[in-house]
Amino acid sequence: MSTQFWTWIFVILTFGTYITIAWRSRVKDTKGFYVAGQGVPTVANGAAVAADWMSAASFLSMAGIIAFAGYDGSVYLMGWTGGYVLLALLLAPYLRKFGKYTVPDFVGDRYSDTARLVAVVAAIFVSFTYVVGQMRGVGVVFSRFLDTTVTVGIMVGMGIVLFYAVLGGMKGITWTQVAQYSVLIVAYLIPAFAIAGQLTGIPIPHVSFGRVMTELNAIQRELGFDEYSSPFVRNSQLNVFLITASLMIGTAGLPHVIVRFYTTRSVRAARWSAFWALFFIALLYTTAPAVGVFAKYNLLQTVAEQPRADMPAWFDGWEETGLLEHTDLNDDGIIQYTPDEATNELRIDNDIMVLATPEVAGLPGPVIGLVVAGGLAAALSTASGLLLVISSSVAHDFYYRRMRPDATEKQRLLVGRLTMAGAVVIAGYFGVNPPGFVAEVVALAFGLAAASFFPTIVLGIFWKRANAPGAVAGMATGLTLTAAYMVGVLYLGVEPIFGISPQGIGAIGALINFAVTIAVTRATPPPPEHLQQLVDSVRYPSGVDAVTPEEIGR
């Protein structure tokens, strides 16, 4: 049976499972729609957090980036993992104790309604930037393995997300994400263990990839490249530091991850959820460096300096997607892969490496089909979490908290579902017409989150003197300057300042946000006494629930 047959089998089975879970998890009130009734068990919430956090960028792109960037690709491992630890230890328990539905809810109650509005705009901006990359990833997977166009693939993905997110809200998304985590982690680990055994005889990638990397260093030297393990080849030392910092604090500020900690029964459960999520995430992240090494090694052994006519079917398949390209510059029929742009004949997109590696290694069709299902699970799980943030920002933080405080439960739920449907359609449109591909778009989202939410949340929890004018000025300045730098460098040809990469500018934006918030706060009156008491109650290390603004007479 063909690879496409097995791919259809796994896609139909997994999508059928998601739809069944969504139908059984449908909700009838806003608490179920936004925070799953705050009754999700810790292990399940940990798996849902891991699925929410490990997007198409983690599953599809990260190992590909490591494969081609070598040592410099470690910024993604350090940044994303460090950011999660920062979120779990520094922010999540306090935000859960605050007891609200969304990040703009925290910002609004901690600072002011104006700050809430700025946070709503930032949440929508960051989430749309992020979700576009996920939808595009779904389209590319469909087009390569299921013989459809990218547009058809995106429409199928939109239909699935629309069904389970609109029907079940956070409750449906949570239990679907648990299933999606199970699919994606199995899909990621099985080929890694199989290829490790195939190359070294030791089927444990974490142990055997060092030996393969030594051989890869030698191959790269022969082809004229720097050694795979050489540092600071793709990025300067400054950019390695800034990109790592930007990814780290961007991860800690991503609203779709933060909101997951509102779904647990208690603050203690939020801490345990963070522990389980870190365990589940580590399973994939400790394997990714080995997958990157195996992918690059197998690719060079199969393709470099080999006749084009001898290439297997997978080479033609990826060429049709435009993500792999061979141009025979000297008409000798041999594929020359060199570091010199003038003589290099092979161009490979980072994002195909995880999907292509099982084919390159000659693994059987069921394994390839499982990896495709895993890639789709990673993209859809993150997309659904982001769409919920967009929906809650509009329907809860803007419609209910700003426009219609007297809205009934039924009206709020209807607006939430309509907003979710509208967001799916817009995300699908930009998925068909993207500003960039998966990793690039996602990296921009992290930078924007770093420059907007992280300083505001940290100061809101740990500095009771922080006030509303400071928070509004800080978020607006950080978000605007960071977005302007990204657009200028990436799309308008502006020369980077001090060579700083657009992927690393979020760290600078966060520092500017901190500085502006502190300066404006110092120059304006302190917040009311009841807000300062609120900050103390959130930080007080007891099992007592947070004192809400309503309880202290706001």
Tally of separate helices: 21
Order of helices and strands: HHHHHHHHHHHHHHEEHHHHHHH
Radius of gyration: 24 Å
Low-confidence stretches: 543-554
**What distance lies between the first and last C-alpha atoms, to the nearest angstrom?**
67 Å
Mean pLDDT across the residues is 85
Largest sheet: 2 strands, antiparallel
The counted number of beta strands is: 2
Structure report:
- With 554 residues, the chain is mostly helical.
- The protein is built from 21 helices and two strands.
- It has helices at residues 3-24, 30-35, 42-53, 56-69, 74-98, 103-110, 113-145, 150-200, 205-223, 237-253, 255-258, 267-285, 288-303, 313-321, 353-360, 365-403, 409-432, 438-462, 468-491, 505-523, 529-539, and strands at 324-326, 346-348.
- A two-stranded antiparallel ribbon has the order 1-2.
- It is globular and about 75 Å long.
- The chain starts with a helix and ends in a 15-residue tail after the last helix.
- Residues 543-554 have low confidence and may be disordered.
Question: What descriptors fit this protein?
Answer:
single chain, disordered C terminus, 21 helices, 554 residues, 2 strands, globular, mainly alpha, 73% helix, two-stranded antiparallel ribbon
Walk me through the topology.
Layout: H1 3-24, H2 30-35, H3 42-53, H4 56-69, H5 74-98, H6 103-110, H7 113-145, H8 150-200, H9 205-223, H10 237-253, H11 255-258, H12 267-285, H13 288-303, H14 313-321, E1 324-326, E2 346-348, H15 353-360, H16 365-403, H17 409-432, H18 438-462, H19 468-491, H20 505-523, H21 529-539
Antiparallel strand pairs: 1-2
Helix pairs in contact: 1-8, 1-16, 3-8, 3-12, 3-16, 4-13, 4-16, 5-10, 5-12, 6-7, 7-8, 7-14, 7-16, 7-17, 7-18, 7-19, 8-9, 8-16, 8-17, 9-13, 10-18, 10-20, 13-15, 15-16, 16-17, 18-19, 18-20, 19-20
